[in-house]
Amino acid sequence: MIHRLALSFAALAGLLLAAGEALAHPHVWVTMKSELVYAADGSVTGVRHAWTFDDMFSTFATQGIESKKKGEFTREELKPLAEVNVTSLKEFDFFTYAKADGKKAEFNDPTADYYLEFANGMLTLNFVLPLKKAVKAKALLLDIYDPSYFVDFTFADKDPVALKGAPAACKLAVAKPNDPQGKQVGEGFFNSLSSPENYGAQFANKIAVTCP
């Protein structure tokens, strides 16, 4: 099973297969920070993500990209790659799932100001995911995960989630998943599952905001 977050993800998986390596899930690791964005009336309008990819994927993804300085890339130089990633993410609902007072809240495509940064050998994808309809909710829940567990998402250790413009009485809680069996999960395991498409839900990173 090959899951594609972007064309470069698929190419990476193909390279591993060609090399005869035993594939295991996950294949790509992402460290993330998220920010819930509020309007002046206290409604949530969307979420801003900053996803930092592991150094192996970052190195592979930037191969062949021309840059003025060796080993460094500007936002402009990374713009085509950013577009590929954002376009591909749509197929997977941007791995972001929301419920407002128990009802599903849907997102629109990211705003046009998304971009990639390259620092310390790693790529970071920054984008804003707007809700189709701003919501005022007493309980807002967000799960961030890859259902097939091709990509492992982990909140940053420091300040992983922030509320921008939220009413002062709102409270934030963040829950990180347990390590999946403490190891990577072999490809044979996934092939043995009758329905592997939502395996990754048990490793979801959770954001909960409660407001009076």
Question: In words, what does this structure look like?
Answer:
By secondary structure, the protein is an alpha+beta fold. It has one domain: Acetylcholine Binding Protein, Chain: A. The chain has helices spanning 7-18, 55-61, 79-89, 187-192, and strands at residues 24-25, 28-38, 44-53, 96-100, 103-105, 115-119, 122-135, 139-144, 151-155, 161-164, 171-175, 185-186, 205-210. The strands form three sheets. Strands 2, 3, 6, 7, 9 and 10 form a six-stranded mixed sheet that branches. A five-stranded antiparallel sheet has the order 5-4-8-13-11, with no helix packed on it. A two-stranded antiparallel ribbon has the order 1-12. A hairpin with a 2-residue loop joins β6 (115-119) and β7 (122-135). It starts with 6 loop residues before the first helix and ends with a strand.
Notable features of this structure?
Acetylcholine Binding Protein, Chain: A; 5-stranded antiparallel sheet; disordered N terminus; 212 residues; 6-stranded mixed sheet; alpha+beta; 13 strands
What percent of the residues sit in helical stretches (DSSP H or I)? 10-25%
Q: Report the end-to-end length measured between terminal Cα atoms.
A: 45 Å
Strand content: 35-45%
Largest sheet: 6 strands, mixed
Overall number of domains: 1
CATH class: Mainly Beta
Which architecture per CATH?
A: Distorted Sandwich
Low-confidence stretches: 1-7, 9-22
Order of helices and strands: HEEEHHEEEEEEEEEHE
The structure class reads alpha+beta
CATH overall fold name: Acetylcholine Binding Protein, Chain: A
Radius of gyration: 18 Å
Number of helices: 4
Mean pLDDT: 83
Number of strands: 13
Q: Quick one: overall form?
A: globular
